[in-house]
Amino acid sequence: MKLTTKGRYAVMAMADLALNESIGPISLKEISLRQNISVAYLEQIFIKLKNKKLVRSLRGATGGYILEKPASEIRLSNIIFAVDEEVRMLNCKKTSKKGCTNKSTKCITHNLWDQLDQHINGFFEKIKLQDLVKQNLKSL
After folding, report:
1. Domain for residue 47, yes or no?
2. Whole domain around residue 69: which residue ranges?
């Protein structure tokens, strides 16, 4: 499965924002300390999240980041795709004329991996950021 730390850290950081949204704007340093992610890496992630309108930055001494829309409207798939991640099991591109084997045919397990892709992406599509927050609060 090809989900890098960028995708996982983006979800963690967004869950941190949602969990602490009652405090007000959250700095990347605060997220960094709580989630053990470097500030420099968070800066790269938050540029992409901001460009996709998932977060908004507020300037000033009490500035930081807030969610652009309610956690109930943000799906994990939105976050993962915002940071240019894609979860896929297939090495070939579905639209490629070369196929999996570079001989214009599909590999013998193509349909298996394609179904797994659909299952995983469907899973991320169903779960909302609010669901993560609720799960976290229950485990406290």
Report:
1. yes
2. 5-89+128-138
Most confident of 73-77, 107-111, 117-121: 73-77
Q: Rounded to two decimals, what is the model's pTM?
A: 0.84
Which residues neighbour 114 within 8 Å (Cβ) at sequence distance 6 or greater?
A: 89, 90, 94
58 in a structural domain? yes
Residues 36 and 82: beta-carbon distance below 8 Å: no
Where residue 74 falls among pLDDT bands split at 50, 70, 90?
very high
Ranges of H-type helices in the chain: 5-19, 28-35, 39-51, 76-82, 110-126, 129-138
- The span from the CA of 84 to the CA of 49, in Å, is 10
Q: What is d(CA 54, CA 68) in angstroms, rounded to the nearest whole number?
A: 5
